[in-house]
Amino acid sequence: MGVRPSVRPLGCGASVDPMSEERYYADKVPETHEPWVAAPDRYQHLEYRRVGTSGLLLPPISLGLWWNFGDDRPFATQREILRHAFDRGITHFDLANNYGPPYGSAEENFGRMMRTDFKPYRHELVISSKAGWDMYPGPYGKLGSRKYLLNSLEESLARLSVDHVDIFYSHRADPETPVAETIGALDTAVRQGKALYAGISSYSPERTAEAIAVARELGTPLVIHQPSYSLLNRWVEDGGGAGPRAADKSLLTVLGEHGLGSIGFSPLAQGLLTSKYLDDEPADRVGRGSFTDDAVTPENRERLRGLAAIAEERGQSLAQLAISWILRPGGVTSALIGASSVEQLDENLEAAAKTDFTDDELARIDALAGTVDGVDLWKGSADL
Ligand SMILES: NC(=O)c1ccc[n+]([C@@H]2O[C@H](COP(=O)([O-])OP(=O)(O)OC[C@H]3O[C@@H](n4cnc5c(N)ncnc54)[C@H](OP(=O)(O)O)[C@@H]3O)[C@@H](O)[C@H]2O)c1
């Protein structure tokens, strides 16, 4: 790292007011841009997990850019979080065409990282993107047609400044388009070299089985499912006698039987499963478009407090317990979290070191965990 003089003349003979903005930046910004160098010990922190029976390994905790990486957040903060994540062993960054706000901006901002700090590390990264939810107006900017998926992938690659993504997902189930067309589009993406693996997100167990059958026939490396999963949203476990899917197999069972891995998104229920909601005071949130505090009823707050008490006995915060729990044996391959600060990320990363639970802990957690209205925003897709 270069050491710069504390006072820099700003042009010929200009005097610098010590309180001025120029002086502030003269002290902060290095004269010569030196490339960022990732921490040499970055692979000492996490144990990587196999995605089903595939060759792909993912970190137990992956970072998503749904919120906190749009144009509404300073790039310097985004860069600090992304650098820190990679330094701590997070190799997987999850995006979608419409992450922002505005749509596309998270990919653009991540693309800036790819052209600068992450450029020498492209092959150490697993970058994913998706198409399926709405992106642009008209009939070709949503759902699961071949036209939408492949057009959108082209645009994502340009925004991300990469020539391929590592995983390309169908972001949601489509009630009209045949599953064979959607999976066929993912297959084309892989054959074109624009994606290494294929994934699906928020597909029901039945539709997942159908998608896997098509992929097997085509030879598509469909290796992963991305469902929502948290202590307050357990639909992936429903089936075989539990929950509304009593007659069917659960999603986790279907994935296990076919050798697919899983990455559970929103393990903190978008921030609800954190210490922010334990007190009666209003929560301190950076700001999220899709989350309302309506879910924080007195009854739910009591459940959160009960879960927080179990977490404390385990030497964890509520957020850590929530992440550890979805990573427990029999849970998902990776927990896909969001973070609006380096401090949150550091707290959450600790969860990866404590994913074992006693039977007693699991039983007490079961008594408190369960569906909270308004948390599963993706139910419309998973119920198709
Ligand atoms: N496939 C899909 O359809 C789909 C849908 C949704 C999400 N995802 C993926 O999943 C990723 C994560 O989703 P998410 O953001 O909902 O995940 P989450 O981990 O449930 O929530 C993350 C939010 O919780 C708060 N938070 C995180 N750690 C905290 C801590 N230690 N203490 C207090 N607050 C904390 C932060 O929000 P504040 O600071 O604002 O409170 C943060 O942005 C997304 O970025 C995306 O990649 C996929």
Automatic annotation (TrEMBL):
Keywords assigned: NADP, Oxidoreductase
Keyword Phosphoprotein: no
Pfam families the UniProt entry points to: Aldo_ket_red (PF00248)
InterPro entries reported for this sequence: K_chnl_volt-dep_bsu_KCNAB-rel, NAD(P)_OxRdtase_dom_sf, NADP_OxRdtase_dom
Domain NADP-dependent oxidoreductase: 60-368
Coiled coil regions, renumbered to chain: none
Superkingdom assignment: Bacteria
The keyword Oxidoreductase appears for this protein: yes
Range of residues in the leader sequence: none
Assigned protein family: Belongs to the shaker potassium channel beta subunit family.
Protein name: L-glyceraldehyde 3-phosphate reductase
Species this protein is from: Aeromicrobium alkaliterrae
